[in-house]
Amino acid sequence: MTLLTSYIQTLLSDDTTCPGTWMLMGADNKTLPLVDYKGQTQEYEVEKANLEVMVHSRLAKAGQLEIYSFRPTRQRPSSVSSKR
Questions:
Q1: Does a structural domain hold residue 84?
Q2: Does some domain include residue 61?
Q3: Contact criterion met (CB below 8 Å) for 22 and 13
Q4: Rounded to two decimals, what is the model's pTM?
């Protein structure tokens, strides 16, 4: 079963948004191909993923490893206790 998921990328420089889709691929479901804002596919390797963080990496043009870490931007509701 293949799960295709959509996302919206927002460029921080000018608030431009670009819709896209993603899915994990490869024998171990750790390959993440993403299409960048220029329309070019970039392939990443997922290092860690859970409800709190996703870390993925790729080799840059010069051969050095680039590591990206994403966390949710919205705070989860916390239990609020009120004293009366």
A1: no
A2: yes
A3: no
A4: 0.60
